[in-house]
């Protein structure tokens, strides 16, 4: 399994709906948090080693209603 973190910029008033949609519709999600700053949410996903990150983000996450933009971080190693 590989972990990725995706930050979501949501359309105004949509952050809670986007978070709920991700939890309900994306089984790869581990957790999602509301954040301050340039993005409204950050979520952690666990993907199978053979799962393509680009297809996952563009075809499963960016098409979520209310999502205006995403920023993806790939995690290399967990400490602790």
UniProtKB/TrEMBL annotation:
Gene3D superfamilies per UniProt: 3.30.70.920
Domain Transcription regulator AsnC/Lrp ligand binding as annotated: residue spans: 6-77
Top-rank taxon: Bacteria
InterPro entries for the chain: Dimeric_a/b-barrel, Tscrpt_reg_AsnC/Lrp_C
Coiled-coil annotated residue ranges, if any: none
Pfam families for the chain: AsnC_trans_reg
Protein name stated in the entry: Lrp/AsnC ligand binding domain-containing protein
Organism: Aurantimonas marianensis
Lineage, opening ranks: Bacteria, Pseudomonadati, Pseudomonadota, Alphaproteobacteria, Hyphomicrobiales
């Amino acid at each position: 399994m590989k972990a990725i973190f995706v930050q979501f910029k949501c359309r105004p008033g949509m952050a809670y709906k986007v978070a709920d949609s991700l939890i309900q519709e994306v089984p790869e999600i581990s957790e999602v948090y509301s954040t301050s700053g340039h993005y409204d949410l950050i979520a952690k996903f666990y993907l199978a080693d053979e799962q393509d990150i680009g297809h996952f983000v563009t075809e499963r996450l960016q098409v979520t209603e209310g999502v205006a933009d995403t920023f993806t971080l790939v995690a290399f190693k967990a400490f602790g």
